[in-house]
Amino acid sequence: MNExxxxxxxxxxxxxxxxxxxxxxxxxxxxxxxxxxxxxFMAEGLKLVIDxxxxxxxxxxxxxxxxxxxxxxxxxxxxRTVAAGGTVxxxxxxxxxxxxRRDNPQMVVGVFSQKFLALKDIRADNxxxxxxxxxxxxxxxxxxxxxxxxxxxxxGVILVGDTTDPFSVETVRATMGSIFAVPVAKATTEAxxxxxxxxxxxxxxxHLKGAVxxxxxxxxxxxxxxxxxxxxxGLPESLAASCDRLLRIPQAGRxxxxxxxxxxxxxxxxxxxxxxxxxxxx
Length: 282
Ligand code: SAM
What we know:
Blueprint: E1 12-15, H1 21-28, H2 32-38, E2 40-44, H3 46-54, E3 59-65, H4 72-83, E4 87-91, H5 93-100, E5 108-113, E6 129-134, H6 139-152, E7 156-160, H7 169-175, E8 184-187, H8 189-196, E9 202-206, E10 212-213, E11 224-228, H9 237-241, E12 245-248, H10 260-271
Parallel strand pairs: 1-4, 3-4, 6-7, 6-11, 7-8, 9-11, 9-12, 10-12
Antiparallel strand pairs: 2-5, 3-5
Helix pairs in contact: 1-5, 3-4, 6-7, 6-10
The structure holds S-adenosylmethionine.
Residues 206-208, 210, 228-229, 231-235, 248-249, 251, 257-258, 260, 263 line the site of S-adenosylmethionine.
């Protein structure tokens, strides 16, 4: 075993053993129970970790492969981690494979503190778009929605009811880094409905029985709250009844419905149509 243990946080440790307690703690983050216990989650990739630090997320541990030693960008991130009071682990390929459960892992992994936005702190001004997801189940869908919310410049996501974890490895991967840019709130259906009562803008639900074509609505006045239904069941009656409009995306062909993330993307690009302009490619 080739381990250099240092007591205080902020020192680099070289780890090659899967039995190392720090490695065990990070591996445990694959399970929601331990993510909740530690209030932490894992993100893979150097760029993601740099973005997260730039956006003010609290890093607890930086893990990098031996191959990263001497890499200027990795060393800079390691220095930032130490400065933030975090721990830096230089690990063997075997340890990195075990932590990420991937055969070809990224060279860098960061462990960050979780962060949720409180519903009461959401301020919706003119032009703001928020997305409420009712009981979203699929981590890929949630990650894709968070990424799309980021891409269109919407303000954030509200998870309503019992949902998949935004900080799971699968969701974080699917966000492609947008987990660090998009505020996420979570609420019970009751708390959400109480908050919705104070929402001053248009509350647009999407529903397979919606009577209104989504392209016929003027989204340009005031803030918009877009409400999307659960993958299997769609919006329940209580949430559907709280919407100002129930919109439908017309379909042809044999598919009953669109995938949740695809439907959210279509809606978001329509709602943000006037705000999105092609920038010249530098
Ligand atoms: N069997 C479910 C149902 O009856 O609603 C299908 C749910 S669909 C996979 C997931 C969500 O995507 C829906 O609740 C709705 O919010 C949105 N959605 C999908 N296709 C849609 C469409 N054509 N028009 C409006 N919303 C749609």
